[in-house]
């Protein structure tokens, strides 16, 4: 299927690895020129080179924490008129709520609610004036299925979801959509737990880990970054213009609901 977005421009936050990288790869495969971002400059440069080599699209690298206003300014300077915005950022670490102080709470809310809203606010009117815009926010399945110990992450992402619900309905008449992807258990570094960067996982240990993590998933496997990215690319396509304000679980059937 031709997604109809070849030549479009996208900002993909936190895209040097993991879910953000999966989205960047899928968009590049469909001919989208990218501004990519990540905290580690070396990892980001490696990802940017990989995408350029594979798909031949234009790539601009902006290294740094997307929650930093200066980095946001750099992203927007590199791409002042994006057609596509993919919001993504790491969530707060696993922590008992009793250990959360004000600083930790404010940081979690800033990273996972305030930052994506700031970028949306900076780009959505331009999208509307040009008659095309696709905004995808990578949140978490914990919006629907809270995970004890990730309470701050759940709250911040749920807050963003509610914040944007009305906004999404206010811009769809200008062909601008805002949707959320809710990843469940996908095969990312985060699910590997602490490990030495760049050190391959023992194949048998990896098999056992994935089998254990997938035991309660109806699909009986972890999702892949490629699958996630392709769903993101579809949400950014010309074919998804009648779909907005939705939460899309990408979870192998883990979230159980008939409606």
Structural features, described:
With 259 residues, the chain is of the alpha/beta class. The chain has one domain (9-250): NAD(P)-binding Rossmann-like Domain (Rossmann fold, 3-Layer(aba) Sandwich). The protein contains eight helices and seven strands, in the order E-H-E-H-E-H-E-H-E-H-E-H-H-H-E. The chain has helices at residues 18-29, 41-55, 69-78, 102-130, 151-171, 189-192, 203-213, 225-235, and strands spanning 9-12, 33-38, 59-63, 84-87, 133-138, 176-183, 247-250. Strands 3-2-1-4-5-6-7 form a seven-stranded parallel β-sheet, with helices on both faces. The chain is globular and about 45 Å long. The model has no long low-confidence stretch (mean pLDDT 95).
Brief write-up:
The protein is an alpha/beta fold. The chain has eight helices and seven strands, in the order βαβαβαβαβαβαααβ. It has a single domain (9-250), classed as NAD(P)-binding Rossmann-like Domain (Rossmann fold, 3-Layer(aba) Sandwich), CATH 3.40.50.720.
Supply the CATH architecture: 3-Layer(aba) Sandwich
Question: How many separate domains make up the residues?
Answer: 1
Strands of the widest sheet, in order across it, are 3-2-1-4-5-6-7
Let me know the number of strands.
7
- Tell me the helix content: 40-55%
What is the quaternary state of this protein? single chain
* Fold-level CATH name: Rossmann fold
Which percent range describes the beta-strand content?
A: 5-15%
The 3D shape can be described as globular
Query: What are the low-pLDDT stretches, counting only 5+ consecutive residues below 50?
Result: none
Instruction: State the name of the first-level CATH class.
Output: Alpha Beta
Gyration radius, rounded: 18 Å
The CATH superfamily name is NAD(P)-binding Rossmann-like Domain
- The DSSP helix count reads 8
The major pleated sheet works out as:
7 strands, parallel
- Look at the helices and sheets and give the structural class: alpha/beta
Look at the structure and give the mean pLDDT: 95
């Amino acid at each position: 299927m031709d997604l109809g977005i070849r030549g479009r421009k996208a900002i993909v936050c936190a895209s040097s690895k993991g879910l953000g990288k999966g989205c960047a790869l899928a968009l590049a495969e469909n001919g989208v020129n990218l501004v990519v971002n990540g905290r580690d400059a070396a990892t980001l440069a490696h990802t940017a080179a990989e995408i350029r080599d594979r798909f031949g699209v234009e790539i601009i690298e902006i290294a740094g924490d997307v929650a930093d206003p200066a980095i946001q300014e750099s992203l927007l300077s590199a791409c002042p008129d994006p057609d596509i915005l993919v919001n993504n950022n790491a969530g707060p670490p696993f922590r008992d709520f009793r250990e959360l102080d004000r600083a930790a709470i404010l940081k979690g809310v800033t990273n996972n609610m305030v930052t994506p809203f700031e970028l949306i606010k900076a780009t959505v009117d331009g999208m509307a004036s040009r008659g095309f815009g696709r905004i995808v926010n990578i949140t978490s399945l914990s919006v629907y299925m809270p995970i004890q110990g990730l309470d701050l992450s759940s709250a911040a992402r749920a807050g963003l979801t509610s914040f944007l619900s009305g906004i999404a309905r206010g811009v769809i008449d200008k062909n601008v959509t805002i949707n959320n992807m809710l990843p469940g258990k996908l095969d990312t570094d985060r699910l590997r737990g602490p490990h030495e960067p760049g050190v391959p996982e023992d194949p048998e240990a990896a098999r056992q880990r994935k089998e254990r993590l997938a035991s309660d998933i109806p699909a009986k496997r972890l999702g892949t970054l490629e699958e996630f990215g392709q769903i993101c690319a579809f949400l950014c396509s010309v074919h998804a213009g009648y779909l907005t304000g939705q939460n899309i679980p990408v979870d192998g059937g883990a979230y159980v609901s008939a409606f």
